[in-house]
Amino acid sequence: MQQFLEESKKISREIATLSGETKNKVLNQMADALIEHCDFIVHNNSKDMKEAENNNLSLDLKDRLLLTADRVKAMAKAIREIAALKDPVGKTLDGWVTENGLNIQKVSIPIGVIGIIYESRPNVTSDTAALCFKSGNVCVLKGGKEAHNSNQAIANILRNVLAKNKLPEQAISLLPDSSREGVAKLITQDKYVDLIVPRGGEALIKFVSQNATVPVVKHDKGLCHTYIDKYADGKKALEIAINAKCSRPGVCNSMETLLVHKEVANYILPALHEAFVYQQTELRGCEETRKIIDIQCATVEDYDTEYLANILSIKIVKDVNEAIYHINKHGSGHSECIISENYSTINKFLDEVDAACVYANASTRFTDGGAFGLGAEVGISTNKLHSRGPMGINDLTTFKYKILGNGQIR
Amino acid sequence: MQQFLEESKKISREIATLSGETKNKVLNQMADALIEHCDFIVHNNSKDMKEAENNNLSLDLKDRLLLTADRVKAMAKAIREIAALKDPVGKTLDGWVTENGLNIQKVSIPIGVIGIIYESRPNVTSDTAALCFKSGNVCVLKGGKEAHNSNQAIANILRNVLAKNKLPEQAISLLPDSSREGVAKLITQDKYVDLIVPRGGEALIKFVSQNATVPVVKHDKGLCHTYIDKYADGKKALEIAINAKCSRPGVCNSMETLLVHKEVANYILPALHEAFVYQQTELRGCEETRKIIDIQCATVEDYDTEYLANILSIKIVKDVNEAIYHINKHGSGHSECIISENYSTINKFLDEVDAACVYANASTRFTDGGAFGLGAEVGISTNKLHSRGPMGINDLTTFKYKILGNGQIR
After folding, report:
1. Which residues of chain B make contact with A195, given a CB cutoff of 8 A?
2. Same domain for A259 and A205?
3. Which range, of A199-208, A321-330, B244-253, B387-396, averages the lowest pLDDT?
4. Which of A52, B26, B227, B372 could join B323 in a cystine, given CB atoms 3.0 to 4.6 angstroms apart?
């Protein structure tokens, strides 16, 4: 493993200096190759599907695992879109001349070797491989066991394109040892690996955070809130709350807890209740809430739970301060929203809530690279440093200072 | 300890929203207070100096520990300079409107709670406390045991100024338990601590890197190279090499290994030899070098050693590629320099050397917040992510997205 990663590090220097033209040509060839070898991918995916059947995987998981000709086409399209993005490497981020004439330039460069650990959906394999290649990085991918054959097939096709272009195949690799021990090795090889991106369940994130010596950009849970303020527009409140909870309850940017200002609770809660019942959402409320609408009781654990399901906890708060306090205490720093028409209250909320994305009067569901206009994303970072929120292609770069002198000494 | 850090986190929300005006007023009062209580500081420092005498600390360490009235004045001046810096908080770093009308703003914000672990010099206490406060952060400082009384005195003075301004004193704190166990606790409280900055020896850096679950910005060693190319200007080569090694051998941005192109070795090495002998620098060379000048033999360990002393290893390389290869293999990613007049060779070196600061024709000694024009620095980061190279006040911030909507749902 060490030898493999040492080699990854070595070739990362070659990949880092590829021109944008070369990278885009290769990426478009990769998209062509996926279409050309669609049958091969689907055939290998069917092995994983059979295994999933044998292991009684849930319908939802099987759907995430499944690849069809249409889905392969979508994968190819995603790669072409990544090729079309502006090259994130070589940008002058800042620059100045010092008093003694040193010309200092801060320039974006690739990170190097990036390890990405993710779960079942096999399209993540081609997406992240393309994002890493576009940004001049070598990737080491560790997908879910259940997608093993699909991931292998996709990686082989992408690697063949690299080889045809006389580029080192290992620039896109699956982790050779995908056991827990293999992962443990990957995340501690800080001499050769520059960044680990874990996307997955809490146990994975915890394992990686506690054991990695390589820097980690976590894609942790999203325990998102929407706060309906005293000065909320009722129509917006209703539409945004329903959208934030019900449009896709299983994703990280959906709402888990609704906070309602006590002075509008009597007016807004019955309408919300009716709308959520229509959406078959299970509601759990605090004592004050239950005096107004007839729902289940929320326990203390509810406010710390990312349901990822059509369940919502509701709490009545006395003002925006209590809302901010509750969010900073129970939130996961992902996406938080205030619905209000009051200028000062909104500013207070936007300033004081500690989260990657803080919304005024819009659904938290917009936290997404595509919706932000950043293009394809590696995921949603819950880190506070390096990358925060939608992790686009620019977050796959770091920088160096180039300093041009003329004999200066100190 | 957990309770203490929980409180630090809580008050970090208050410190984060202070206005620039308030922060600068308080900082200038802190500078005044240091001058006013100069005797108190010097008195407490004398206790540390006595202890140092009893423990037979080296002259160098004792000099680093010593505080005089002049040094206290310099500390006060540094705080005033920090107050005069532009507020790094609240800057709009980027901003755009999406197709559906969401107004997205990427805004700089304080990091939160920062733990800083450092060694003997007590002025670091006031410098880092002021930098953290200016950038809206709460700091938890763990200084060297040998400076305990000095650090306590300085911190008390600064805290009194906070209290007088009705601000929470705990915004500037010394770590309550400064044992190894205390540090181990600090670096694993990722719920309350947002960043750890270790400045110190290799053992400390290793301990923190391997055990922290809080993100770490390392201030690790500087194993810096200067490469004299075939097309070097001889005068610049001589001046820069001597400066990079001899102006202050004990600091991280000084040169440890000199690489010389084989085609200029015969011409440049005798002159360098003479100049270094004059500077009393101990030279250790490869076999090829020793055919030209009569110096000691460099072992394989030499090329991996940060001497921090007036010792230099020399190696002859066959071209810029071998120089780059050697640097990327043995360097610590800190500061590297090429001396050349050849445009393409310089560009190749600047592009392919993997380090925070890559110089053409200037001494690596310029890697420093002040020399870069960034103002006071927390140190020199050897991280590749978040902060790289001189870590100024802007690196003590992160960002959030503020998204202003008008009822948008997805």
Report:
1. 385
2. no
3. A199-208
4. B227
Residues B7, B60, single domain; the answer is: yes
User: CA B249 to CA A94: how far, in whole Å?
Assistant: 30
Q: Per the domain annotation, does B233 fall within a domain?
A: yes
Is B231 in a helix, a strand, or coil?
coil
Contact assignment for A400 to B363 by CB distance below 8 Å: no
Q: Quick: pLDDT tens for A151-194.
A: 999 999 999 999 999 999 999 999 999 899 999 999 999 999 99
Please list every residue in chain A whose beta carbon sits closer than 8 Å to the beta carbon of residue B373. Answer: 96, 98-99, 104
Number of domains in chain A: 2
CATH number, domain with residue B32: 3.40.605.10
Chain A's closest residue to B371, CA to CA, is A98
**What whole-number distance in Å separates Cα of residue A387 and Cα of residue A393?**
11
- Are residues B84 and B174 located together in one domain of the fold? yes
A164 CA to centre of own chain: 31
Which parts of chain B have pLDDT scores under 70?
none
Chain B closest-CA separation from residue A34 CA (Å): 30
Residues B295, B392, single domain; the answer is: no
Looking up residue B352, the CATH number of its domain turns out to be 3.40.309.10
Task: Say if A410 falls within a structural domain.
Answer: no
Total-model pTM: 0.93
Angle at A251 between CA A246 and CA A256, to 5 degrees: 60
In a domain, A118, yes or no: yes
Q: Could you report the predicted ipTM of this complex, rounded to two decimals?
A: 0.94
Q: Domain containing B338: what range? A: 224-370
Per-residue pLDDT tens for B140-196? Answer: 999 999 999 999 999 999 999 999 999 999 999 999 998 999 999 999 999 999 999
- Residues near A67 by Cβ (< 8 Å), separated by ≥ 6? A41, A42, A45, A122, A123, A150
Dist CA B7 CA A249 (whole Å): 34
Cα–Cα dist B195/B203, whole Å: 19
* Domain identity same for B182 and B137: yes
Please name the residues between 324 and 383 in chain B that touch chain A, using a CB distance below 8 Å.
328, 350-352, 354-363, 365-366, 371-373, 383
